[in-house]
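Course assignment 3, question 2. Fill in each field.
Student: A.L.
Task: Predict the tertiary structure for the chain below.
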Amino acid sequence: MPERIRTPRRDAVANREKLLAAATELFAERGLTAPLEEIARRGGVSIGTLYNHFPTREALFDAIYPAKLAAMNAAGQEALADPDPWAGFREFLRHSFELQAVDRGLNEAMTLRYPAAAAMAEACDRGYAGVAQIIDRAQRAGVLRSDFTLQDLACLIWATSRVITATVDIAPRAWRRYLDLQLDGLRAEAAHPLDGPSLTTEQVATAMRA
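Answer field:
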């Protein structure tokens, strides 16, 4: 006889959905280090039930953040469709930071490295690969300085994410001013020789892990 395929019990599926909703909410409020016990409490289940569904914190990340990061990829496609390469580059960054500003967990997912969260890491890598097209398009149009690299972008995202974290409770839109200052320095007509090369991909990853 063919092996019977077991389907999850209805209550197990409901518990998983409650846990994901609670984790999504709490990570957005407090960041990726939010207590798992609080997630279980908000989800109305025991901590044992949480671990049955998500054996590690990173398993929760992998269940939540690839879809959130995919929303940023959609913004990247909009940027590439903009007839003005500089406007596309600028609005992509603004849209990305708007999403990060209202979701502390997403802000951290973009700027911290969790190697055990493989799906989240892959989604981040896909996002950066897509942004490379936005950068290349703006540079070929002569509006973005030619020495700006993908690693420089990672550091710009990292820096702005720190501003978001530090000011979210006192001046939640402050990051927009500092992004505008950074963008002015990235225009091709404002470029001057830089003191040293950009970080390598490995150096950026090491710095984020630290």
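Instructor remarks: The chain has two domains: 1-55, 64-209. The radius of gyration is 20 Å.
Grade: pending
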